Amino acid sequence: MAMIDRLRPARRGSGFSMDGWFVWCGSVLHENGRFYLFASRWPEETGFPSGYMTHSEIVLAETDSLDRPFCYVKTLLPGRGDRHWDGAMTHNPFIMKINGEYVLFYIGTSDGSAKNRAIGYARAKTIDGEWTRSEQPLDLPPDANNPALIVRDDGSVLLYFRDGRLRVSVAEAARFDGPYTVLAEDIFPKGRVEDMFVYRTPAGYEMIAEDDGGAYSGLKKGGVLFRSPDGIHWDDQHPEPAYGFDVTYEDGASITLQRRERPMLLTDNGQTYLFTTAKTGGADRLTGGRTWNMVQPLAHE
Question: What is the dihedral sign for C-alpha 229, 214, 241, 298?
Fold first, then answer.
């Protein structure tokens, strides 16, 4: 059964939003009975989506149940000045726990320009402790962004990223902090793909992503699922739709989103949840409105 057919009604009021802020992205951990969401936000007065390039910051929110909303805890990574690679903004958080340490991959830019966007990381011993940022970004091609990672059984890492033309590449390193070697470029040549999330399955690897032009899912900017035996070579001949823009709530109401992006999956106690960012209420998909991180359960296959 395709993922889009497994989506169950969302619970109204769950997820994460903040008055006065555009909320975007979202990467989740579940530990010690609590769910921790790493998200991006920027002030509404700076505009959507352009304001993220100069004002986005990564924040931490938490909840004890995915049926209830996440609550803001603190700002983890504000911009830190133009002397740094991430001086103007931080965005696209992707959290992992590696060898007992929390590692948060993200993008930044020194001056608010796309040409200087790059991927780096911050690390911490505890989620609510002090986060230490990499002083330099990872050595990847220009305008690498949208990081997604897999840690293999031997500790080596596959890092997925896309460039400004929405071409997806995969790089490899012996450790999460590099150095990285690009293994394959433009792995989905028939279309433009972004917002990748990759996970292991008994058969290999799966990826859910945004199908920007609709070449794979048939829905422009809809969700698409790809499969791979090794995480490097991906089957783009048999993609499946992963999600669309129409969402039903448990109370029977429904909504059609203007944008739905940044997918990730989390399985807890046998239940899998799809997290996506969502936007509605603007004059069009590129103008204002309300944004939030949405949580939607999936039926078992």
Answer: positive
Residue 254 in tokens: 């429904």
Rounded Cα distance between 9 and 283, Å, is 26
* Count, residues in the chain: 301
Task: For 160-173, write each residue's pLDDT tens digit.
Answer: 999 999 999 999 99
pTM of the full predicted structure? 0.97
Lowest mean pLDDT among 79-88, 89-98, 134-143: 79-88
pLDDT of 49 above 90: yes
Phi (first) and psi of residue 45, to 5 degrees? -70, -15
DSSP state of 54: H
Pairing of strands 246-248, 235-243: unpaired
Q: Which two tokens stand for residue 123?
A: 């690390």
Distances (CA, A) of 68 to 163, 253, 257: 36, 18, 21
